[in-house]
């Protein structure tokens, strides 16, 4: 999932509805108990420049989405949502049995889960201040040694942007050039980056799904000319997304 979110971040897109019901998984037969996870339902996603409205499931919303109506949103909202998704899937502190509706309750329960021993490694994903919350790329470096990065390694801050001391290096060293990129068709690109879609576009969707069944929304969109970005909630897609998300061209696939 971090790979999928890092890919969206590099293309200026916020998913805004990361939750168990929007993640598909399928077993990898050659990898024992490992699974391929795919992010789906892009009905609420928007560009970073246009995302303003409060959308998504309250339990998984980042604090800034709940308290700052009309404020500019960043891809850090998806990082908070992914943490809550992991806590829910692992049922940390009986997360699955919680009936959470009030924003303050949702935030407090997430912060309590962040203190659980099994989630210590990713507890930074629950930083209240989004500028101090790590990006998907930073978490990939921390937890997986950068495997599957879309963000160039030398562009990833070591610390959140506002905590860098003067003169501190702003990225990880890149002693070697990046590996050669293989270009494939858009459907293969989506699978490689962990993003699923529905069968309306001829793509196969895995049969298992985390959480309750949910409506799937194609990530490919229409082939007509993109309209100016807006922040409609569930209306027709009107986002000026990159060509790789619209299915108009090919996109690089990164290893891992």
Automatic annotation (TrEMBL):
Disordered: annotated segments: 198-256
Domain Protein kinase: 1-145
Gene Ontology MF terms in the entry: ATP binding; protein serine/threonine kinase activity
SUPFAM superfamilies, per the entry: Protein kinase-like (PK-like)
SMART domains assigned to the protein according to its UniProt record, in alphabetical order: S_TKc
InterPro entries: Kinase-like_dom_sf, NEK_Ser/Thr_kinase, Prot_kinase_dom, Ser/Thr_kinase_AS
Keyword tags: ATP-binding, Kinase, Nucleotide-binding, Transferase
Any Pfam family hit: Pkinase
EC number: 2.7.11.1
Residue ranges with Polar residues bias: 198-207
Protein name: non-specific serine/threonine protein kinase
UniProt source species: Ajellomyces capsulatus (strain H88) (Darling's disease fungus)
Lineage, broadest ranks: Eukaryota, Fungi, Dikarya, Ascomycota, Pezizomycotina
């Amino acid at each position: 999932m971090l790979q999928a979110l890092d890919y969206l971040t590099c293309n200026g897109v916020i998913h805004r509805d990361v939750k168990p019901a929007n993640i598909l998984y399928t077993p990898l037969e050659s990898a024992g108990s490992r699974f391929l996870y795919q992010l789906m339902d892009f009905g609420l996603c928007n560009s970073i420049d246009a995302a303003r409205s409060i959308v998504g499931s309250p339990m998984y919303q980042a604090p800034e989405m709940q308290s700052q109506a009309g404020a500019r949103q960043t891809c850090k909202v998806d990082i908070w949502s992914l943490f809550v998704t992991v806590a829910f899937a692992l049922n940390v502190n009986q997360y699955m049995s919680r009936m959470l509706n009030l924003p303050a309750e949702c935030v407090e329960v997430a912060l309590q889960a962040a203190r659980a021993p099994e989630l210590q490694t990713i507890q930074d994903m629950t930083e209240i201040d989004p500028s101090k919350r790590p990006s998907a790329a930073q978490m990939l470096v921390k937890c997986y040694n950068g495997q599957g990065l879309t963000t160039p390694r030398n562009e990833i801050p070591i610390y959140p942007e506002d905590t860098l001391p003067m003169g501190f290096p702003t990225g990880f060293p890149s002693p070697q050039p990046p590996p050669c990129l293989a270009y494939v068709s858009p459907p293969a690109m989506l699978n490689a980056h962990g993003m699923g879609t529905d069968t309306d576009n001829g793509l196969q969707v895995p049969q298992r799904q985390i959480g309750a069944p949910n409506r799937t929304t194609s990530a490919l969109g229409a082939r007509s000319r993109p309209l100016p970005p807006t922040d409609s909630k569930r209306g027709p897609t009107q986002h000026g997304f990159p060509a790789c998300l619209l299915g108009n061209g090919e996109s690089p696939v990164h290893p891992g």
